[in-house]
Write a structure and sequence with these properties.
- The protein is 17% helix and 50% strand.
- Strands 1, 2, 3, 4, 5, 6, 7, 8 and 9 form a nine-stranded antiparallel β-sheet that branches.
- The chain is globular.
- By secondary structure, the protein is α+β, with helices and mostly antiparallel strands.
- The longest helix has 15 residues.
- The termini are far apart.
- The chain has three helices and nine strands, in the order H-E-E-H-E-E-E-E-E-E-E-H.
Length: 147
């Protein structure tokens, strides 16, 4: 849905990365509830040119999104998200940060409050041929050492 849900504008090119801004496409016809939310986002996409990998995608909900005329649910405009990806070893990209902050209501009563900030660090390349059990044991001993 990304190509159709947004209008895109080039913001910059620093030689390594291309930065694109996106805004809701008024001609987009969302196929489902997720598409309705996606179609009301505006933000920024940074792509690594050499590997065609997303480095960062961030955005905010530009307006309230209602379901069932607001009777079934509502996500409040202004909610934000950001996902950061990094090359942790040559050719291996992983999500290193996820930030989601949204609010709303379901069926008038139940509040939705997703406030998530997750940062992952200290990625390590495991030796070739290692078993899952060996990797788990190495991870446990490393975690104990770091505490």
């Amino acid at each position: 849905m990304l190509p159709d849900a947004f209008t895109w504008k080039m913001q910059g090119d620093d030689g390594e990365n291309i930065t694109l801004n996106f805004n809701p496409n008024p001609k987009f016809s969302p196929p489902d509830f997720q598409g309705r939310v996606l179609g009301q986002m505006a933000g920024k996409l940074v792509v690594n040119k050499g590997q065609n990998r997303i480095v960062t995608i961030s955005g905010r909900l530009t307006q309230d999104v209602t379901f069932g005329w607001g009777l079934l649910g509502r996500l409040r405009g202004g909610g934000t998200f950001r996902v950061e990806r990094r090359e942790v070893t040559p050719g291996m990209w992983q999500i290193t940060e996820t930030h989601v902050h949204i609010e709303g209501k379901v069926l008038f009563f139940k509040s939705i409050g997703q406030q998530e900030d997750e940062v992952q660090t200290d990625f390590m390349q495991m030796p070739d041929g290692i078993t899952l059990e060996q990797a788990a044991e190495m991870s446990k001993s490393l975690t104990a050492t770091l505490k």
